[in-house]
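dumping this here before i forget
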Amino acid sequence: MKTNSMDKDKDKDKDKKFVRSINIRRKSIDNPFINERYEKLMNEMILKQNGGSTLFLKNFEKGPSLQKEIELCVKKQNVKKKLKISSYTKPGCSGPGIVKTNQDAYFIKEKFLKNDNYYFIGVCDGHGEKGELVSNYVINKLPEYIQDLNNENISNAFKKINNEIYNNKSIDSDMSGSTVVSVIITPEKILCPNLGDSRAVLFKYDSGIYYAKNLSRDHNPGEPDENKRILLNNGRIKRCYDENLKKFYGPERVWLKNKEEPGLAMTRSIGDKIAHSVGVSDVPEIKSFEYDGTEKFLIVASDGIWEYLHGEDCIKIIRSFYEDDKNCEEAAYALIKEAFKKWRRKDIAIDDITVIVVFFDD
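structure:
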C-alpha cells in the first residue's frame, strides 16, 4: 500500500510539472479561437489530476494525448504563415481599341486586426454606370469595419457599407453595384466572406498532383437557394431575349416582377438598390477552411479571370513560377496576360481583369 501511495505521488508530481511548463508557455497564446480550445484542454487536465492519479497518461494511450493536443495549440499560435502576395489589374475594352473605366478594385491588408500574422485581401468587381464608385468605396471601408472574425461582425460590416452607399448622394446605386470576394488568412485557418460572382480558389498539391479547391461560391440565379430567395421576394428570373433572332441568350438574370429592369446576373452584391428590392442580398456567405499542409497558392480574382480560365489553366500558368523561384509578381502578370488573350479571341468587348496571387511558402 505504501508503494502504491508513493507511485501516485510521483504521478501527481509529473502532471503538476507538465501543467507548470504549459502555464509558462500559455502567455504566447493570444488568439481567441486557440485559447478557447486550450482552456478546455487545461480544464480537462485539471479534472484528471483531481482524480488523484495520472489518468491523463493512461486514458489517452489509444489516441492523441492531451499533452500533445495542448502543445499543438501552442504550436499553432506560434507558427507564422510565410506568404508572398502580388496583384495586377487591367481595364477592359468596350470595343476594339476603346479602353473603358476600370470598375474593378482590390485591397491587400497586412497585419490585419493589428496581428502580424493576419492578412486580409479582396477583389471587388463593379458594374453599372457608377460601379467603380461602389467598388472603391468597399475596398476603403471593409478592412476598417471588420473588427473581429466572428460571422456576425463580418456580415454587419457588409451591411453597414451597403446602407452607407444607399445614403450616399454622390453614388447613384439604383442600378450600380459591386461583387466582393475576400479572404482572411490567419495561422490557423482561412476565412472567405463572399458575395457575387468573383471568386477565390485555393490550389493544393497532394500525391504528386495539383488541384483546385473553391473557397467561394458564385451567387447567381442558377443556385437553387439563391433562385428561391428571389422568387419569394416577388422577383423574376429569366435570360435576355433577342427579338430579331427570336431566342434567349446569356445567363439567367434578376428582374422586377412587371418591369424589364435591372437584369442583374448575380443574386448577392453591394449596391444595386432596385435588385435588392426583390431579394438580391448584401449578406456574405462566409466559409472557413483549416490547413492540411497541402496548400500551395491562392488566386482571388474578378470574373475577368474566371470567364475563360479554369483551375487546370491556372495550374499550368502558375506552377512554374511557384516551383522555380517563387516569383509571385510574374505569376499574377502571366494570369492577366493569358486571360486578356482569351477574351480578345472570343469577344469584341473585354471585361476588366483583376487578380491577387498568394504563394504559401513551404
